[in-house]
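Before a computer can learn anything about folding, someone has to put a protein's shape into writing. The three-dimensional part falls to structure tokens, numbers that each stand for a local backbone shape. The protein below has been through that process, and both of its lines are reproduced in full.
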Amino acid sequence: MTLNLYTYSMPTSNTIHHLFRSIEIKTYRMIYRATFLILGFIAVYIMSVLLEERLYYYAMIPGGCALIFTLFEFVFGEMIVEKSYPSETRKIMDAVDKMPEEVSNGLLNCLKTVIEDLRGCDKTLVLATIHLKVNVTISKEDRIQVFGLLQIFPYFQIGMLHQEFVSSKEKSGRILHGYKGIIGRCMRTENIESVNFATVDEYNFRMVNEFGFSKDEIEKHTFSARSYFAAPFKSNSEVIGIIYLFTKEPQVFPKAVDKAKFISTANHIVDILQVGKIIKTKANTGP
């Protein structure tokens, strides 16, 4: 599936706010719909009270309001969401939400394989996940789009029970800024990227000055990790996602990665995503 992504350009300070507001589409949609559903129920209740009092003329007012609220909830809600997320992005998100168990099992095994194939490190300290490249609209007037990175699973760790992995919702389903962090750099360069931090102070300094985060944003990050690794996987020679790993051990990446084995597993990930109808094109994958 060709995502028809726009050419990357660094958003200005005026567009960053719009991008940030569009990140939590699930939360936005839930709040939007819940608000109009509650208003609709209130209107229907008032209408029923007025009908019981035989105030038919006045009952038409909350009845009309209930109709309008329903129209906004079911029709205009999706139109508003579309302004933040193009249809192809929403299709990917819906496919991820409805991912069959056999597909999630396959991806779990791939993440496990990626970690088990590492060399010369404590594999139990490594966490891994998968991100997919998606479009995000940052200018509703001009329909300007940049890419975001959809995290399709929680962070997986060796020893984690399958049910813990599947049922965990922490940080899965979120869309990260495509121009920040090591995964953003990996997506832009379309190459394997790794970074190591000796201290928390170095981490804080480089995250702000090199990787584009604000000081407030890094306060929400983990400070225990010391070595990070991100590698792209492709379909039809186009980067469509990233495999992301990090560990508490220092100086692990990239030397711990067996590139041949990693590429093989990346190809398998694309195959599984095709089976799950998350992506639909023929695999042509490799960092």
Summary: The chain is about 50% helix and 15% strand. The first strand starts at residue 126 and ends at 139. The longest helix spans residues 56-84.
